[in-house]
Amino acid sequence: MNEFSIIDKYFSWNCDNSVRVGVGDDCAVIELDSEYQIVTSVDTLIEGVHFSSSNSAADIAYKSLSVNLSDLAAMGAIAKYFTLAISLPRVDEKWLSEFANSLKQIANKYNIDLVGGDTTKGHLSITINVTGFIERGKSLLRSGAKPGDLIFVSNNIGDAAYALRQKQRNEPATLSAMNRLNTPEPRLSLGRSLVGIANSCIDISDGLEQDLSHILNSSKVGARISTDRLPLSKEVSEYIESTGDWCIALAGGDDYELCFSVDKRNKKNVHQIESDLKIKLSEIGVITPNGGLIVDGFSADCSSYRHF
């Protein structure tokens, strides 16, 4: 089986009417609406760095698209199209079938079309480029935080890092924690709901400490947050209580939750979003005029994930 038959068998799907040319030509051709702007992002996942050889093909596919969709969520965008560049060490049709079915499942779940890509032989890696639309001038940015803004985080943080740590130590973690690590849920509905309400937003991929600092640096502000306000699952809370290891929540990464700031006058809107979407939104601190991040209740150093 060559690369073209792999593409034809596993990655040729029907697309919506805005896709004039999809998989199978040199480029995709897409109709645009002049009232919207394009939002695009790309991520690469590599075996041994972002996932292990023991991960199922289904989980690898799900996470590969999910982490890219999380970037669109952080911008408040509507997901529309993606491309897939996959490097395979060999042709394993059972693995490919499981990967493709899972990829199609999450693509259908979030209504995003596969419109092209590339297939090569090499060490297993998956590169996905996502494209979305947002109303002109409405993108949620890292650079909009203002002194006095309240800082919020969605759902819980630290579960994925906890699951990874337990896995590396050959110790058990709950199924819910493992699912947070292997099949994170992009917060697209939340991102859309925050358009016009949040002043800044980012998804937590490398750890709250590092990703919130990106907002602070881009906005030229500071922040003060508190450990006793961080949203934690019972499992992570018990782990921190027994070890004192706050770094797992502050710098663990792989959460793919949204961290955002809002003017305090919009606090009631945040509570309404929380109710409408049935998602926990926790106020963890405030944006300050001075640069730097202060974490009340924690004084040690944490190192969030960095590639280099």
How is this structure best described in words?
It is a single chain. Strand 4, helix 3 (93-109) and strand 5 (113-121) form a beta-alpha-beta unit. The chain has helices at residues 3-10, 57-75, 93-109, 159-168, 175-182, 188-194, 208-219, 234-243, 247-250, 267-277, and strands at 19-21, 29-30, 36-46, 78-88, 113-121, 125-135, 150-154, 198-203, 222-226, 258-262, 281-288, 292-296. Helix content is 34%, strand content 26%. With 308 residues, it is an alpha+beta fold. The protein is built from ten helices and twelve strands. The protein is globular and about 60 Å long. The strands form three sheets. Strands 8-10-7-11-9-12 form a six-stranded mixed beta sheet, with helices on both faces. It has a four-stranded mixed beta sheet with strand order 3-6-4-5. Strands 1-2 form a two-stranded antiparallel ribbon. The model has no long low-confidence stretch (mean pLDDT 89). It has two domains: 3-135, 60s Ribosomal Protein L30, Chain: A (2-Layer Sandwich); 142-296, Phosphoribosyl-aminoimidazole Synthetase, Chain A, domain 2 (Alpha-Beta Complex).
